[in-house]
Amino acid sequence: MPDDETRPEPGTPAEEERTEAVPHDPTGLSLARETARAMGARARRRRPPPSVTRRSVDPVSSGAHPDDRDPQTLSRAVHRLVDAKGWAAEVNVRTLLARWALLVGPSLAEHSRPERYADNELTVRTDSTAWATQLRHMAPQLVAMLNEQLGADTVRFVRVLGPDAPSWKHGGRSVRDGRGPRDTYG
């Protein structure tokens, strides 16, 4: 529009008269332009002079180098959680026990499995008493190897259990030296 340059400043009486004299615009384009000009004029009147305007520096804004407020990878977040909760030793033991075959060898790992780690004691279950005996003989080397990889005194004792046997004790009030399985089989 060529008459844009000759328009009076928004908010002046001449502008208000001109706004009322504009014919109906079905698209609303002229109304949008007039509204934008009026808003701009109000903003310019409220704005302080450029010499007074100072840009404040935010002392906690992120710079060019990474810091704790930047997005983190999931693995780093999990590591921070483990460290904060004090679970590092427990997680390290579980990770190492997940590689049981590398610790004791493939043949022994085939017939034994770690069951529990609590109070610096590792409990291992075997398939037979022969494998339990072999693992008991190997227990001091296993403790030394675990402590070497996990840190001193992480594992103090390895308890080796034989195969699971059925329990004939039922309930808390059973007879301690009762007949047991003999009365069942004959």
From TrEMBL:
Residues 1-73, 167-186 are annotated as: Disordered. Coiled coil: none annotated. Pfam families: DciA (PF05258). Residues 52-62 have a biased composition (Low complexity). Residues 174-186 have a biased composition (Basic and acidic residues). PANTHER family: UPF0232 PROTEIN SCO3875. This is Predicted nucleic acid-binding protein, contains Zn-ribbon domain (Includes truncated derivatives). It comes from Microlunatus flavus.
